[in-house]
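MarR family transcriptional regulator: structure tokens wanted.
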Amino acid sequence: MKINEDLRHLTYLLRATRQQTRKIFYAQAIKHGLTESWCLVLGVLHRNESSSLGDLAKEIHVGNSTTSGIVDRMVAAGLVTKTRPENNQRQLVIALTEKGKEKYEVVERDYWKVLAPLTDFPTEKTTQIISNLEELETKLEEISNNGK
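Answer:
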């Protein structure tokens, strides 16, 4: 099978982009005494106010048991709470504490300061890139699911 060189180049660019964004994200997390996973959890909970363990795991793209460990460590650090609703003792609800909210706001502010040069991209170009990447993600997800 002949590999399409444009697709090869695309996959390399996606990997390189991921590595660069992770490097920036990691540096910001460390600067604030957090892990990347903790930053992701803070972001999800900031956007959603609270989340079940399963939904949180899906949002940060790791398994339930990994998410459970992350959440336990964040509870110990005072960044999140986990409670069981009275009407469903099987469900676990995770939410930010005041300390978690404050930490998120500082990390978020600093992260976007670092990425400020990206605002030079024209809005139309950014919109097109997002659209293309969403389409690509959907296609790759289909490929991934068919391979199971």
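The chain has a mean pLDDT of 91. DSSP finds six helices and three strands in the chain.

Cheers.
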